[in-house]
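Researcher: Going back to the complex we discussed earlier. I've cleaned up the inputs and rechecked each line, so this should be the final set. Can you rerun the prediction on the complete assembly and write out the structure?
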Amino acid sequence: MAYHSIVCVKQVPDTANITGQAMKDDGTVNRAALPTVFNPEDLNALEAALELRARFGGTVTVLTMGPLNACEVLRECLYRGADRAILINDRRAAGSDTLATSYILSQAVKKIGEYDFVFCGRQAIDGDTAQVGPQMAEKLGIHQITYFEQIVDLDGKTARLRRNVGNGWEVLQARLPVLLTVIDTANEPRPSGARKIMRYKRARVVDEVAKDVTAGMPEAGEKAQMEERTRRVEALKADGLLMEHWTMDDLQADMAWCGVSGSPTKVHRIQSIVLKKEGFSEIPPTEEGVKRMIHELIVDHTLG
Amino acid sequence: MANFFNDNEDIQFLFEHMNLAEVAAAQEDNFTRTAGAGNEYAPCDAADAIDNYRRIMTIVGDVAGNHIAPRAEEVDLEGNTLNEDGTVRLSEGVAKNLKVLAQADLMGFTLPREYGGLNCPNLIYTMAIEIISRADASLMNLFGLQGVAETIYAFASDEIKKEYLPKFAVDGSTGAMALTEPDAGSDLQAVGLRAWQDTDGQWRLTGVKRFITNGCGDILLTLARSEPEIKDGRGLSLFLCERGPRIRVRHLEHKLGIHGSPTCELVYDDTPAKLIGERQRGLITYVMSLMNGARVGIAGQSLGIAEAAYRVARQYAHTRKQFGMAIERLPAVAELLVDMKVAIEAARALTYETSRICDLENNNLRVMEFNKPTDPEELKERRANSRTWKRLNGMLTPMSKYYASEMSVRVTNEALQVLGGSGYMTDYPVERYLRDARITTIYEGTSQLQVVAAVRGVCSGAFEKYVIDFEQINYDNPELQSLKQQLVEGRELVLKGIAFIKQQGAEYMDLAGRKLVDAAILVLVGHLFLQQAVANERKARVAHRFINVNMPTLRRDIELVCSGDVSATQQFDTIAGPPPSGF
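Model: Rerun complete. Updated structure for the full complex:
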């Protein structure tokens, strides 16, 4: 029996390579100043969906909400074997916190309609909240299993799944559809496939085509640009290279739940902590030395 | 995230400065192919093709750095295991590596797109081999066996191609070339494994093969004697057979290095097989072609191992403090490191140039075979090019294999020296690199055999013609121009050596061959470095050091060549004495 999966992915600032002014004055991330990467655990989520498809058949649809640049992660998904890629991009969605984001994504999942699994990375490395997946499950009214590692058993209606609980694991049973948040120990995400990269490097959403046309033929009039744009979009469609682009209207979203107005989260206070190294102490490798060190660590509350 | 392509400045430099547009145009028939299976990912022009190459190499760099390299130590320690039923269990790391290479679509690297391949030129494949080998040299022996698929593509029937090529490119099957036997190593004409036809006309193979890399693979090309009455190479044909109960692995070799690569002794028990191409052409045409590609592959492998060793040595020398300073500032260590770096870049220049010319030759042959031009002028030009490139490759391929592999053994050895006592310990990977490098001067033809092949190219005029072309280049920079003058002197000396050798006869050619080939390579690489130096100031310093350090060696080599000394053969019994007893 085949299963249909939806994978939610996010383009995030590469926090492993911080450069420039990483944080804005209001304490939010300055995305423009940072190089972007595919959120690492979302790659685990995608891999889990691709492995599921390889074992049982079905489809893998990927979904991302973000600026036009986020199409890069959608293409990355196509390079790894996703069947369908959808960008959710709308100025009215800008400034969404986890509550608004989970609302918008759950509306998109409803629009896709038929699905058995929603895979999310456990958390994104920019906000580290781990809230979007669970909030989506609540809004969709389906079961959620967080810290997912492995499928134990599947019978078409229910799934038995292993989740990591930190110092061990437990096996849970859930009715389908189910939402899983995937952690990095679940699998080894595959690299991009060379054949797919050569094919899908040309995949675009309509707005990207428009941008390319404007940049490529700035002298041409509006009419000529429109014609060129239509021609390119039709060509992409014919080659199966046009990615979908959904707006809030496509999702029939209640605007009160979206963007800044739908986001109750406010940054309360920002603290810049600079860790200073203040000398070092040498511990003699004796019973006495170790005892003294442990005592010191307990006194300054590092231990206990 | 490590990326072994993006972090390698010299490979990046060559990627930018070698004429990839010309190579891509030859590989893609000037971008005229549009219809047909697999062409939804065909490039539309040179820029598109080069963009594809860069993207493919970025995947290779990612796979090497993030998937393969972290498992290399474990693969080396664990090795592979022979099961009782004559099958082989690959170490877990090797199995995972093969899976990830297949996921990345890298196992049909040079095959045409219609079979699921990437249709990459040999030059890009050589870069990939180098990068994979830097991560784990032993994996290259599996990744680098794509020549098996290339041979099937070049010589087998359409039916066999359609059945087997997608298995390599899409399903991740691995191959092996089963050539050598206990009594047929360097001398493949002595192959004795029997090929015979049963009453239904089915070919069957009976006998033993030894030292077969990945002999436990899925698809084996086997050299066998189909004409029992013909005792030499003309009695041999090439056969394809699949892994199954009628091929048993009798023994897995215990080796000094490349532990991840299973080296098998195979027993063929009337194994059913399919003939590749025509009878009797197995060795003289098909295997010879396969061996040439494989030799360039070993040169790439040698480069990768040396690169890995150099990086550890440099890192160590930079951080290790003795006598109050980083040891890379000690003159003796500094010189070791600089010589290692220059040696790697020298071998890389020669190997990549060889790959580039292989691409021009192979693509020209392909056009002549499948799409012969009707224009008499073009036909004439293609025929002339074909002859030139064939002669040139006949010299450059063995030169690259010889030069890069000897370099690899030397550089890994010196890297261990830089680490001192720590390098001798298994805590650092350098001892593994040295063990892995050691095979490169031996398999796919020993250094001694490469020299025999190369010296004939040097003496046949291929060297002179090639170098004279380089000498026509005039450099604006007076320093480069004066370095070129030294190379002109070098070429004249080599020609003097050739003239002397020719008077002495074939045996002397084999005796003095190595010195003559060494001298010729120095001149060639010197010119390649000068071309690089035009684009890059650092490369000007590299060229300067390479030529100045090596010219005295060249003069000495030619002096020895022209001395006519034959004591090693003429007085062998006297000097070597009787063979040791009680050994």
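Model: Worth noting: Residues 422 and 428 of chain B are 7 Å apart (CA to CA).
Researcher: Good, that matches what I expected from the previous run.
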